[in-house]
Each structure stands twice: as C-alpha cells, then as structure tokens.
Design goal:
Length: 146
C-alpha cells in the first residue's frame, strides 16, 4: 500500500510554529492549491490542504516561508482525532510533511531552497546556497500550469 502526497501551492498564512513539552518544533500550515478552470468558468477555485511539519522542517518553514510563499510538499496523509473541551470528538486529516521545497517566497525572486528532515544539519543551508549560486532556476508563477 502507498500513502504519498505531493503538493505544490501557496501558503495561506504565516507558519504557526509551536514547541512541544519536550522541546520539539511543530509547525502547522495550510497550502492553497488552484484547481483547473472548467470551460466557461469565471474566477478560480482552490483546495485548502492542512499540513504539519516537525523538527528541522518546522523550524525551516517558520524561518523562511510566509503567507503567499510557493512551496512544494512531499509527505503522507495522516488522520487523527481528539476530544474538544466540550467532549466532542474532532477528526483531522492533514499532510505530514517529510520534505519541503520553497519555490518562491515573494521577497527574493528566482530563489530555490530545500530541506529534508533526514538531511538537515547546520551546514546544510551553507552548502545548498553554494550550489544554488551556480545553478539558479528562474521561476515565475505565470509559467506554472496552474
């Protein structure tokens, strides 16, 4: 069986970063993914997908992503539930982020950054920026098919 989610979309708001009681970083965020327009349709529709990231990926998103940032997410669908203060069971479906690519953040055009939970360390960003300066990818949201 396969449980894999690959999503490209824009953040609907700034990252909500919190720490657990044991000090682990956890970020919750929502990605808006445009739906293809139907013939004769005016305006556009989008799906709003709730996501969660842990540890270094959560810190990375909180530091480098903001509302409107175009991100590529690779992860898996997870479901969970909890009891509200009133005793009602709340069911949640979300994407558990394994890795994220910042495709465009609005502040610096043509920048591509990446992080992966299993690869992140203090020198990762330094190493990546050295490679990035040699191989810049120019992305414009108008060039994307959605």
């Amino acid at each position: 069986m396969i449980n894999r989610a690959v999503i490209v979309g824009r953040l609907t708001k700034d990252i909500d970063l919190k720490k657990t009681q044991t000090g682990l970083s956890v970020a919750t965020y929502t990605v808006a993914v445009n739906k293809p327009k139907r013939k004769g349709q005016e305006g556009s529709e989008a799906d709003f997908i709730n996501c969660v990231a842990w540890r270094a990926t959560a810190d990375y998103l909180a530091n480098y992503a903001q509302k409107g940032t175009l991100v590529g997410i690779d992860g898996k669908i997870q479901t969970r539930n909890y009891k509200s203060d009133t005793g009602v069971t709340i069911y949640v479906t979300e994407v558990l982020t394994d890795s994220v690519n910042i495709l465009s953040n609005g502040r610096e055009k043509n920048q591509v950054n990446s992080v992966n939970n299993s690869l992140y360390n203090d020198s990762f960003e330094e190493d990546f920026n050295q490679v990035d300066s040699e191989f810049t990818i120019n992305l414009n949201s108008d060039d994307l098919p959605f």
